[in-house]
Amino acid sequence: MHPTGGSLRVFKQFVWLGLGSVKMAFSRPTHQRVTQAVGRLDKYEKVINTTRLLSKGDIFIMNEFPTGAHGFDWYFGTWHVHNRMLRKRLAGSNDWWEFPATDVVKPILSGLGNVDEINFDRPEKPLRGFNLRIFNLVTKLWSIYWVDNNGTELQPPLIGKFENGIGTFFADDTFNGQPIRVRFIWDEIMENSARWEQAFSTDSGATWEVNWVMMFTRKLE
Fold it and tell me: Any idea where the domains of the chain sit in the sequence?
């Protein structure tokens, strides 16, 4: 939204220069939703800090975020992870694969997001994964994006929130060409430990198959 309340359609272009003979440009249409404001902006009062304007009447100053934005604050740091994963998913299998991992988690955007890189020590098939989590100040929901070196394709985001100490996140995806519902659950969260699980559903969430469980233990200095 434009600061005056009207809708403004803009075309955004990203250009990388100074790359020798190489010039790259990335363009996409977008709505101007984020406006930096210092001083008076339309009817809004003067703000000393740089602000983010997301919708009319909603100004958020950095570090003054809704409670939901702190849902992953406990997660920052380095973790030892015990993994238990089904070797075959949605196949009625009960053959579980167990292996360790190390996870390093850092905040970004002054706390509005976080990233982690996790290294799975799987002798048969080593894996390195990366998560990006972003909190939406308007919807008060988290979006979780995953990519790994198994295919380097960014997966559809899981969206959700924490309630009563439990984080639940959902996404629609496909598995072996079959539409599925994906669910993440974070629970048993303590200062130095936590539990995460992933489950798939082929019937729109009526039933679930848990196919991956991680038990986290914080690496203490």
Answer: 9-63, 69-218
CA separation for the pair 78, 122 (Å, rounded): 19
* CA distance linking residue 158 with residue 198, whole number of Å: 11
pLDDT of 137 > 50? The answer is yes
Rounded Cα gap, residues 216 and 102, in angstroms? 9
Tokens in use for 91? 């196949």
Question: In sequence order, what are the residues at sequence separation of 6 or more whose Cβ sits closer than 8 angstroms to the Cβ of residue 27?
Answer: 11, 12, 13, 14
Q: Dihedrals φ, ψ of 63, to 5°?
A: 75, 0
User: What is the Cα–Cα distance from 186 to 214, expressed in whole angstroms?
Assistant: 10
Side-chain half-sphere of 172: how many Cα atoms within 13 Å? 3
Q: Which CATH architecture has domain 69-218?
A: Beta Barrel (2.40)
State how beta strands 113-120 and 96-108 pair. antiparallel
Q: Which residue has the higher pLDDT, 191 or 44?
A: 191
- Residue 34, pLDDT > 70, answer no
Q: How far apart are CA 110 and CA 63, in angstroms?
A: 7
